[in-house]
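User: I'm putting together a small comparison set for a docking exercise, and I want a reference complex before I start. The sequence is below, and the ligand is zinc ion. Could you produce the 3D structure with the ligand included, as structure tokens?
Assistant: Of course. I'll restate your input first, then give the structure tokens for the complex.
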Amino acid sequence: MFGYRRNNFTWNGTLRELEGSYPAICTERGRSSMTASPSSSSGLEVLLSTLQNAGDVESTLNILNILDELLSAGTDRRIHYMISKGGSEALLTALVNTGRSFSPNYTILLPLLHLLAKVGHRDRRIGMKAEEAGAVLLTLNLLRHNVSHARRAAACLWVIQVFSTSVSTANLIGENQGLDVIYRLIPHYTTKHLHTIKASINAFAALLCTRANVCLVVSKGYISGLLRLYEDWHSKDTEHVAVAIRHALLRCLHKATHCAAARHALVSHGGIRLLHQTTQTCLLSKSLECLVEPSVQLMRKCLPKTPLLLTSDQSAYSFPLPGRPHAFPDIDIPLDECNEESDDEDVEDNQEADSKDYDDDLESDLNKIRLRPDPDRPKELLPPYSCLCPELSHDFKELNLSSEPEDSSTSSSSSSDEDTVLLSSLPPHSSRRDRRKSTARSESSNSSSESHSETETSTERHTPDAVPLEARDFHSHSSILSTSPGFRSKVREARGEASPGQTEEEQDDDEEAAEESHCHTMIDRLLERHGACVPHHEPKMYHAAATKTKSIPGFSILAFPDFWGHLSPPGHESMAPRRPNIQRKKVFEDVQRFLNTDDIINQVVFDLEDSSPQDPSDRPDSLRFFSKFESGNLRKAIQVRRYEYDLILNADANCSQHTQWFYFEVSNMVADVPYRFNVINCEKSNSQFNYGMQPVLYSVREALEGRPHWVRTGAEICYFRNHFCPARGRRRTTFYTLTFTITFKHNEDVCYLAYHYPYTYSALKAHLNVLQKSVDPAKVFFRQQILCCSLAGNSCPVVTITACPASRGWKDLHQLRNRACIVLTGRVHPGESNASWVMKGTLEFLCSSDPVAQSLREAFVFKIIPMLNPDGVINGTNRCDLNSEDLNRQWCKPDPVLSPTIYHTKGFLYYLNSIGRTPLVFCDYHGHSRKKNVFLYGCSVKETLWQSGSTVDTVGLKEDPGYRTLAKTLDRISPAFSFNSCNYLVEKSRSSTARVVVWREMGVLRSYTMESTYNGCNQGIYKGLQTGTRELQEMGMKFCHSLLSLTKDMKALYSRKLINHINMDHKSHNCFEDDEPPCVEEIEYSIDCPMLKGTDLDSDVNSNMDSADGEEESDEGHKGAQQRRGSVGQSQQSSMKSRLFPHLITEASIETLNEKRNTCNGVNITDGQILS
Ligand SMILES: [Zn+2]
């Protein structure tokens, strides 16, 4: 029960009871005009109906007052309830009825407009309703007649602002000169009627949601007018009493500049300079702080678009595809004049935008989810894949020999570095097939000698005859040595100067031989002097592997870190703290480029496409860049200021997109100077670089001093949308800047910077060879084979790892041949080098002497294809293969010619299926750029149907819950793993990924994508730390551990003796946050226009009645304005909803009102109870 007392009206009870008490509200005349039948309507409906029909002032005022009381007391839910009961329409009708008369009664009209503003602000369809009721132009007319009545004008302006949320309403007002009327209400600096001025600016801003209105505003010169107004208020408002007006003006400019013409107008009228100057002053005063962010955002948004300094947006690397014309012209997309550069116009028309409860991307049809498509090829093509199961046909003769370690050249269980697979019955693509065959044959015929030379000395070279595939030889390190002064003299001593970028085609054999021998001398000396110290890495083996790697540009130089090896630095690396307002600072520096051109150098210092040798003496003080090596990606470096460089990344080969991965060499630095680097053509809309992630750096100097580490580095890191656009075509593409600052430790060092720890194709090949040498062939069956060749002719390795049988006895061989298969793949996305480090951990663990590894080998046969996209990795692409396709979207129907690795992996899986050896587990290793931790994506019919909102009854649906076992186990044993980040949904957009196809077509229940973060963890014992290669490799090992949960050997899994470092309960188990919270600073500037909050409008409306002397006050004194400052400037949470008529309420009634509030906010009364 609640009640309140007013002079002329007493009422105790709920709204429902109003039906019995409306005689108290309405006078006789009002009651007689009532039409609604109380028996069929709720109290609210009666009130609304009475409001529309009552003609007498007192009844109407009473009703308005009751409504306002009710709506003010609780949450927005009450207002929404009222809207659903036709509240907006009732108010609009009352407005039209009252406002239509020749001399409207403002005693009613004013509170009516106030209530309409509050309610309408929360009604998404208010614009349309107002048009239907004929209230739009009526309100505009009321405004016209009351331009000198500050209070009435303000009320009209709020309503106009609210109506303008609809595009068509805003256009209607614009067409009827509403913009001019309102613009004239915005004066130069004054202390009077600040409320009305603010209301004018906000109404004006609201009208700018449509293109037509913005065009009007631009053509009438209002943009420069608004700028001058802002300047005037800024310079004269020295006491900061009108900050809210200045804020509103900025907001208004924001709204206008969603349109390109308005942005041009702002720039051409000196807007950037004005904003820059005013912001400098704002930064000095705490009370002006709130103006800084909108000013900076406005500058960002209006900076003229600058095309990237490229001749073509197409990748610098192109590759002729079989059967396709070799031409990739830039496509100049014809631009719709209107759409140019404007991403976000007319966005306010959100009347249709109903929130969706369910994900459209999920399949809701049970049959479609389960549908198993027919195989994509005939059965006859499968038998050749039998050679990829050497363990099934191997006779293990050597087991009967002695137990002495065998000579590696004769050992057959771990023999040549790559056995050959001859897939003779491939589809008829003769040219490719022939080439593949010949590749295979020649590698086969030389395999033993090759393996010998590679693993033993590396000094012998295969003659061109022995390697028919025009293998590029790598004369490693000359570039490193030539740029590293410590070794320059040595190089000169050994030979004359050679330009680092020179390719071998330009050299004759003699020269090549000389180069080669020199190179080996250098390598030997280097190794002799500094020694290599990285486990499972042999520089010479890396060099040997790299000589066979084929790249599009014909790399002839090795990057030092790949050659020398990387060792995890001791200790953990914390995520980088983000300094407050770092983005603002960086944007300010970028804006200054535009205003202050004095210190701008803008000099290209590196260009991947420019083959002419760089002369370092040209720019002795500039950094030097280089990226023409395996996995390297830097297309251009431009020195902007003395210590600042813009970097442009190379798009994926044969296309113009997917920039993210980078890896390049930088040298000629001065120690202890902060250098700012800006990667200016990133494409993703947000990045972990905004959440504590740092790029990685490798210093050659440090490595030679015994610290061969990739380390996380960089300060002042942030990622935000910039003002660059593509050089040609695709104008609507937006780019983002990744900026970071690095202070190098040593003068004239040679350093490497990368997006993430690099792991090249040659590194994989070398690593497999090292592993092969490391295993005990009497125990471990380790076999490297070639799955197929990539488009560019690089072999795609497939590795078999299992335990040798205890004997050649029938029983042991039978056990071997019935072991379950585990198929692991990785690195289909070249930029996801983290996947390779996890795979490295898996491979090393499976080859180790660890007892768990032995158990796993005895239980399973592992088939591992560690790198599904060799060409992409080699050529430094981020996402695609050379055919510019995402290989992980090809699994449904992979093309044998264009996507050979996927075609043959799938073929091999079909084969396993056909011989009854369907894998127990399939897992494809990936990296995830937007999330933290490591997690699995799997496939579940039930979970997908639940999430999709399908009507299928899932209770009776049977599904093996085994798909969750691995994730549950990993969550317990692996610190980086997060069960809460896993999901098992089958998205339509993922229907051609490995995980879904292997699950659906091969019937593999446990088919996963394993995603590893690039950044770090937000849970568990690694919380707050960035992952290093140690943690990634550990993850690869833990994944193997988790496979134990699928064996009878479950005990071993939880035995501390067997598995070290398991901290059983390291999890908090309460982290459901897998997506990042909104960034502290806006990354995008197009959507940032600060929304006006309903509460702001409420407090403005409420204060329109603050002073005691009614509405006719026409000249507020300076004193009045001062009283108001607080409310103009702040959002006033406390008074967010007060009453329309506070001055009418007596002291006594305020008491009862407070009592009522308390009751309302108590537990017993819900909104519904009160209102219905
Ligand atoms: Zn991926």
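The first strand starts at residue 3 and ends at 6. The chain is about 40% helix and 10% strand.
User: Thanks, that's exactly what I needed.
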